[in-house]
Amino acid sequence: MASPKVDRAGLFNEIAEGVTYPHNDKWYSHLLDQYKLYVEMADRVSQRRATANTYFLSLNSAILAFVGYLSVKDTGEYNWMLACGGVALSWLWRTLIISYSNLNTAKFKVIHQIEKRLPISPYEAEWEAMEHGKNPELYRPLTHIERNVPLVFVILHAVVFARMFPWCWLTIFRDPPWPGCGF
User: Fold this and answer.
1) Are the C-beta atoms of 78 and 138 separated by less than 8 Å?
2) Rounded to 5°, angle at Cα 181 from 178 and 183
3) In this structure, are residues 153 and 82 in contact, taking their beta carbons and an 8 Å threshold?
4) Burial letters for 90-108: b for 16+ Cβ neighbours within 10 Å, e otherwise?
């Protein structure tokens, strides 16, 4: 997975020639306010990600439950179409997880850059303590686990597809079609 890069030179605005920014206390006050706002926005991205995960988990579970219900009722001849939809939803879900992960990675890189101008760097220190997520015994980034959940649903939907697809339709141009195919 590609990692977003943050251009430090583009992060901090330089004060134009001849213009003076108010004294240092005001500058640090503005920096701290922007830092707090940015940390809050990073947290909101994580909340949106959790909400999206709940939505896709519920939707995929509902599709599989509905397929199970239709199968018991012997009215599941088109369950393979639901399985196709489930595979598409699961793949979209995985793509969204990776996108949110990249966005959060970029946000925390910016936070780390801002922290270099503050008296303490708690997020940078935490990330260092967790060995940048490279030691799975110490910390396993949630994304590494989270992005595989949709693949489990892809497999489940593929099993439904393989069992429910009317494979005899593939022989429609053969003479004679398979027995019991309804042709």
Assistant:
1) no
2) 90
3) no
4) beebbebbeebbebbbbbb
pTM of the model: 0.77
For 37: left if phi > 0, alpha if psi spans -120 to 50, otherwise beta; the answer is alpha
Q: Taking Cα atoms as reference points, which of 34, 50, 52 lies closest to residue 118?
A: 34
Q: Where are the alpha helices (DSSP H) in the chain?
A: 8-11, 24-72, 79-115, 122-129, 142-146, 149-164
The predicted-structure confidence for 62-106, as pLDDT tens digits, reads as follows 999 999 888 887 776 788 899 999 999 999 999 999 999 999 999
Q: How many CA atoms lie within 13 A of 154 on its CB side?
A: 13
Whole-angstrom Cα distance, residue 170 to residue 76?
19
Q: How far apart are CA 153 and CA 59, in angstroms?
A: 11
Residue 134 — φ and ψ, nearest 5°?
Answer: -90, -10
Tens of pLDDT, residues 104-141: 999 999 998 888 888 888 889 889 898 988 888 888 88
Q: Tokens in use for 134?
A: 């490279």
Question: Which long-range contacts (C-beta less than 8 Å, at least 24 apart) are formed by 62-68?
Answer: 63/89, 63/157, 64/153, 64/156, 64/157, 64/160, 67/160, 67/164
Q: State how far the Cα of 72 lies from the Cα of 67, in Å rounded to an integer.
A: 9
